[in-house]
Design goal:
Largest sheet of chain A: 6 strands, antiparallel
Largest interface: A-B, 71 and 78 residues
Radius of gyration of chain A: 24 Å
Oligomer: heterodimer
Number of helices of chain B: 10
Largest sheet of chain B: 8 strands, mixed
Number of domains of chain B: 3
Helix content of chain A: 10-25%
Number of strands of chain B: 23
Structural class of chain A: alpha+beta
Shape of chain B: globular
Radius of gyration of chain B: 24 Å
Shape of chain A: globular
């Protein structure tokens, strides 16, 4: 196998030889390591080393790509032919572009685990302690389903014929504890995961407490009484919600009539309490990056400010179509991506949201969200877990129920936004949010 | 794909630290997808995936190392990494593999690559035009074709050497209808262990016409009721229901760790006596089939539930040794980057005696689910959910009107016992992907029309 720089040079030379003027290579490599413990013994260990290269050519304004994990010199003609063939298949009216690297790239500080402390950590002992303490923490813990550790290092190189030459590296580490608990009648499960970027992420007592609490707090659950009611979405649940609907802010989705926000820039589309941000430059953010997938400098933006839609998310192709600048959210195709994407926190404690609501429910987990959203109609019906709120206070846990609403109405019906913004092992974050008029169904 | 002597050396290296079993999975895949929107190709992509995964067992422990470097150096490094994880002292090992014939039960008529792009694009265009022609309310169509040729080699220290080629093609047509501010995107999906004959053999006129007409019909849909009610499911909805509410909790992945609500219930009644559930990886040319599983064992027909009684779990080689059972030929993985584990292939519910029309006639009030988008389950708690995208209201024994989609939820432990009518019209459908521990694998389903006596429907009113 030849060195990647030399391989890319040969691909570029092959493209030139065929009279192709514009081309690009994006190479990524990663190494990962995983440990899983069961009944005080490591029962699975895995390691991975992989690399792949996406070679793209631009012919008559269209870009064709080919991804390869094979770096044999004999495959170079195939890679160039496939990319050119894919460009030739393209028929859409949009034009596509490579980026030449102009403009200022911010110096960013992405999330990184505390590598020094992590280096000293005995991972096997750490996982064994988590499992042991989880069983000891509460007699209702019936089974520790999974205790795992994962770390990954990845590197990406982007080079093209316009002079773009960028590189980025990323390190992640994560541990998680997942368990079941029983009250004798039913089994509920819960868990907690950490990314080793905060001091408490190294404390087994804290992880065990949160994981056990997540499971046992769901026991002795009641069936919900169906109806329309206000709902407090816990921060992590609302973060999942906004991530699931993020497509409605994509310029291509609006252009294709798949987002009902089309034509609404500058108009109120949400409660004045809602400000929704995409910030690739966020200090320590899980998706922090200096540039997008097209090599365009990434920038901070408010998608919704005080309820008013300020921008869609553009890559180079859609920016060309709408005669505007890329917002630095490009993917290389028509779609756009998000980075650190979050709801700006308000000033009320989450408990105050319960008081504000009086009676209703708190949703702390949404199940099956990925297939539940129809962005065209906005209809959403999703499985949920959580608990009752009575007289402004947390009351009984609830058996799994459903909530149904329209996503565009949810944005408008936000009554209050809490101050407990969190990014729980995710680059999508939110504080807890109180929303009116959600249809809830259960037994 | 690789020389036998090299594979044997790599497997021997993997056992050098004293593991009791070593296996290598080598893959070379070529895939391509063409996506058309509004009559124009807007994305055309292809890829070559190439790599190997090496697994070493030592009692109830296993290690896995994967690499995209198939050179001798790359493979030996992965083997050493997998071996080192056992933590045992060095011991010399010799491995000899014996190529075994793999019966090809899935004949492919036409290789899907080799200059077929123009023809594929033309068929996507035809399908789109036919959908547009169905109604002026069709404002957009999306159509796509996806092909994959996956060559695999699986060898292990027990001497197994099995090679297989899997060719899959998948077609999607999604017309969007709009009227008076209401929109609905419908979709038709089919796929198989087939080559280009799949797309070419489709009755596009009938498929496009029906899919577009269903989209237009849904513009009149009213809000779905919310609460507990009778739920009828056709073959497609029933398939996803059993996949989530039954299948996942019967995979050894969950069962071997006591993380399934069905653990310890073999021989017990877990479903209505009307239910016989089979997972069958052998159905010729079905989307979820293959000749051998990803551990090199022939796929087979596994009876999971017989007349309501739990007969067994789907077990891969590793979890089978933990559970003290035989592997069931249903160990699968998305690619070499994943260690394999027990997964469903084509999940079937055998026919009952009810006529589908009698099921409707005998339903006082409920929802008839005919199209779903997918779902999920937590095998440990048994809570499952799935999203219905198209449904009808049934009132006093008659289908009355279309209703908007809704989430359906329940718990595996009691819902399977609530199946009170099973039709005699089983058909195999679906060409979906199931995402779980060993990645995304192709699955399909076959059920007759069936009814659940009471289930929570997450409607809007």
């Amino acid at each position: 196998m030849m060195l990647i720089g030399a391989f890319i040079d040969k691909l570029f030379a092959e493209a030139e030889k065929r009279g192709i003027a514009e081309y690009q290579a994006v190479y990524s490599e990663s190494e990962s390591f995983d440990l899983q413990l069961f009944r005080q013994k490591i029962d699975r260990q895995s390691g991975s080393r992989s690399c792949g290269l996406t070679f793209a050519v631009r012919i008559n304004g269209k870009i064709g790509r080919f991804y390869s994990e094979c770096f044999a010199e004999r495959d170079i003609p195939l890679i160039v032919s496939e990319a050119a063939g894919n460009a030739a298949n393209m028929e859409c009216e949009e034009n596509f572009f490579f980026y030449d690297g102009h403009g200022a790239y911010e110096t960013v500080r992405p999330y990184c685990p505390d590598t020094e402390r992590l280096g000293r950590l005995d991972k096997v002992a750490f996982l064994a302690e988590l499992e042991k303490k989880a069983y000891a923490a509460d007699s209702r813990v019936s089974n520790v389903v999974s205790v795992s550790y994962h770390e990954r290092f990845s590197r990406r190189i982007m080079r093209n014929s316009l002079g773009l030459d960028l590189q980025a590296e990323r390190k992640t580490a994560r541990a998680g504890l997942w368990l079941s608990a029983t009250d004798g009648h039913s089994v509920k499960s819960g868990g907690y995961a950490v990314m080793f970027d905060k001091p408490e992420d190294f404390e087994t007592d804290t992880i065990v407490f949160r994981a056990v609490e997540d499971a046992v707090s769901r026991l002795n659950a009641e069936d919900i009484v169906s109806g329309k009611m206000p709902v407090v979405f816990k921060n992590t649940a609302f973060a999942d919600f906004i991530e699931a609907i993020s497509g409605i802010f994509c310029a291509y989705e609006a252009d294709s009539d798949k987002s009902r926000l089309k034509g609404k820039i500058g108009m109120p589309v949400a409660s004045p309490k809602l400000t929704l941000i995409d910030d690739p430059l966020l200090d320590g953010g899980y998706a922090t990056a200096a540039f997008d997938d097209e090599g365009v400098p990434a920038k901070y933006k408010e998608i919704i400010k005080d309820g008013v839609l300020k921008t869609f998310l553009f890559g180079l192709s859609m920016a060309d179509k709408y005669k505007c600048a890329s917002t630095g959210n490009g993917t290389g195709g028509l779609a756009s991506r998000i980075f650190n994407y979050y709801v700006k926190p308000g000033d009320k404690d989450a408990d105050r949201l319960f008081e504000e609501m009086g009676s209703g429910i708190c949703v702390d987990r949404l199940n099956g969200l990925g297939v539940a959203v129809d962005t065209v109609s906005g209809n959403l019906s999703v499985a949920a877990e959580g608990f009752l709120v009575r007289n402004g206070k947390k009351a009984a846990a609830l058996n799994q129920f459903t909530i149904a609403c329209n996503i565009y109405d949810v944005l408008k019906n936000i009554r209050e936004v809490g101050n407990d913004l969190t990014f729980y092992c995710s680059s999508s974050g939110s504080p807890s949010v109180l929303v009116d008029g959600i249809t809830v169904a259960g037994a | 794909m690789l020389k036998k002597s090299l594979v044997e050396t790599v497997l021997a290296r993997a056992l050098e630290n004293g593991g009791d079993f070593a296996e290598i999975f080598v893959e070379k895949s070529h895939s391509a997808g063409i996506f058309m929107s509004k009559r124009q190709v807007h994305s055309s992509q292809s890829a070559l995936n190439y790599g190997a995964g090496i697994r070493v067992f030592n009692g109830s422990f296993y290690s896995y190392a994967d690499t995209s470097d198939l050179s001798e150096e790359g493979l030996m490094r992965a083997a050493a990494q997998a071996a080192a994880a056992t933590g045992l002292p060095k011991a010399a090992a010799v491995v000899k593999c014996f190529p075994q014939p793999v019966e090809n039960r899935h004949q492919i008529a036409e290789f899907p690559f080799d200059g077929k792009n123009a023809e594929k694009i033309e068929l996507l265009r035809q399908a789109s035009e036919l959908a547009y022609a169905c109604s002026d309310k069709i404002i957009r169509t999306d159509a796509a074709v996806f092909d994959k040729v996956q060559d695999v080699l699986i060898a292990n220290s027990d001497g197994l050497w099995a090679e297989d080629r899997r060719i899959r093609e998948r077609f999607v047509l999604s017309p969007t209808a709009e009227s008076g501010g209401e929109t609905f995107q419908n979709s038709y999906l089919c796929g198989g262990l087939r080559g280009s004959e799949l797309l070419r053999g489709l009755a596009l006129e009938e498929i496009a016409g029906r899919t577009a007409a269903e989209a237009v019909e849904m513009l009149e849909a009213v809000n779905c009721p919310a609460g507990k009610m009778q739920v009828i499911m056709n073959s497609m909805a029933g398939g996803v229901f059993f996949h989530e509410a039954g299948g996942h909790a019967l995979e050894a992945t969950a069962a071997a760790k006591n993380a399934s609500v069905f653990c310890g219930k073999k021989g017990e009644r877990i479903a209505s006596p009307l239910v016989t559930m089979i997972d069958d990886g052998t159905i010729p040319n079905a989307w979820g089939s293959s000749n051998i599983d990803d551990e090199g064992l022939p796929t087979r027909k596994n009876v999971l539930i017989e007349k309501g009684i739990l007969k067994g779990f789907l077990a891969d080689r590793f979890n089978a040794r933990i559970m003290g059972v035989e592997p069931t030929g249903s160990s699968r993985r998305e690619s070499y980057r994943y260690a394999p584990t027990s997964r469903m292939n084509n999940t079937l519910i055998l026919n009952g005696n009810d006529k589908p029309e009698d099921i409707v006639k005998n339903t006082e009030y409920g929802v008839y689910a005919v199209q779903v988008r997918g779902g999920s389950v937590n095998p440990a708690s048994g809570d499952f959910n799935f999203s219905v995208s198209r449904a009808y209201l049934v009132e006093k024994g008659k289908i009355t009107k279309p209703v908007k989609g809704a989430k359906l939820i329940g718990n595996c432990v009691d819902i399977l016992k609530k199946i009170d009518m099973v039709g005699n019209d089983m058909s195999v459908s679906g060409a979906g992907y199931c995402g779980s521990k060993s990645g995304r694998v192709p699955v399909c389903h076959g059920t007759p029309t069936l009814r659940v006596s009471s289930m929570t429907v997450g409607g809007q009113k």
